[in-house]
Amino acid sequence: MLWKGFRPVGRIRSTTASSTQYPGGLIADLNSVGFDWINNYWCNLMNEKGMNGQINPARQFAISAMIILCISLMLFFIQFARKFATNRIWRITIQTFGTVTMILAALIFTEYHDLMTLLSSIFGVVVLTGIILEIYKSKMKLFKLTGKVCIILLALNNYIYYSGQMIEYLPFIQKITFALGLIWVIGLNYQLTGKNVVQHCKN
Questions:
Q1: Three-state DSSP class for 92?
Q2: Angle 59-83/88-105 helices, nearest 10 degrees?
Q3: Which of 128, 136, 169, 177 could be disulfide-bonded to 153 (CB atoms 3.0-4.6 Å)?
Q4: Nearest one of 102, 20, 5, 105 to 58, comparing CA atoms
């Protein structure tokens, strides 16, 4: 049975708490007040200062939330591969790359933000690909489709970030990607811990 302890509640609460303490500032308006859920990046919450130049008291909450999320997802990837993956190579790949991905993602608050973001995205695509390939052996059609969408959104985020095209929409697209990805993992975890997990694995 997969890890039933995976619950994003702590991360959600910490993120909400940090967003209320963010001093303000965004690319379009450095003098704005507070966190703009449409135009601010998640990473803004983890910076030492807001984009308006003021000390950011939200930093400690945001970093804590990120670490909790990364540890949760790391355990999920390990347990998914151990209990559900039938291909030995993909089992090892999902566990290894999943762990590396989350370690890199947990370090995006450092000065190596861009590098950590790029590397975690690359490793993350491999992990998602492995999970989707294993899911294809089951009858969970919805997760097959939404898994592909997650990969497309992840690729789109990186394309916009590094090309600079449509960059003004990236903060919003980033949040959609996070939300869908988290919902996908939670739903998958729920399905795989259900009574029909054995039947899914055989199909």
A1: helix
A2: 180
A3: 177
A4: 20
